[in-house]
Amino acid sequence: MARDYYFNFNLSYGPGFLGWMSKIYTDKQRYLNALLKIKDFNAPSLKVECFSFEEVLLAYPNDFFYLDPPYVLENSKMFKGIYPMRNFPIHHNGFKHEVLAHMLKRHKGPFILSYNDCEFVRNAYKDFKILEPSRQYTMGQGEIRMGKNRLERGDSNHVKQSHELLIIKE
């Protein structure tokens, strides 16, 4: 199952497995070499569990967490979902953003939280360090990414900037 997930995950360079294939997978030997690295992967202290964020935060009150919850869509610059398709925000609906904020305020350990930049997020996490990373976001741009031809033409109007925040508790 891990092999199949690795293949599917790396096969697609677009949102929700709807993109295009990496050239590594057209070369049988390169793909087999990548699979061998997975076969030999050993992390004896790695523990993978499947729980809700509520259960995890309660079970590990002092641990460091990296959290990447679904976007807050109401009053957001990110007016539509990304996964599995841009206009199908099913995985964003119904997420308990208020509960997450409340629990993280009480969490004793450090965390890094990536979130979309919107009024709710800024208000909910105003007591934490908030960073506004500046980077170009290319996942949804597909074939209109910045390339040599666009650079030569001086065509840079299509570049989409990130609207995400990093919220940090040290």
Automatic annotation (TrEMBL):
Membrane spanning stretches: none
Record flagged with keyword Methyltransferase: yes
Gene3D superfamilies to which the protein is assigned, alphabetical: Vaccinia Virus protein VP39
Keywords: Methyltransferase, S-adenosyl-L-methionine, Transferase
An individual GO BP term: mismatch repair
InterPro entries listed in its UniProt record: MeTrfase_D12, SAM-dependent_MTases_sf
Domain of life of the source: Bacteria
Pfam families in UniProt: MethyltransfD12 (PF02086)
MF GO annotations: S-adenosyl-L-methionine binding; sequence-specific DNA binding; site-specific DNA-methyltransferase (adenine-specific) activity
Protein name: D12 class N6 adenine-specific DNA methyltransferase
Taxonomic source organism: Helicobacter pylori 83
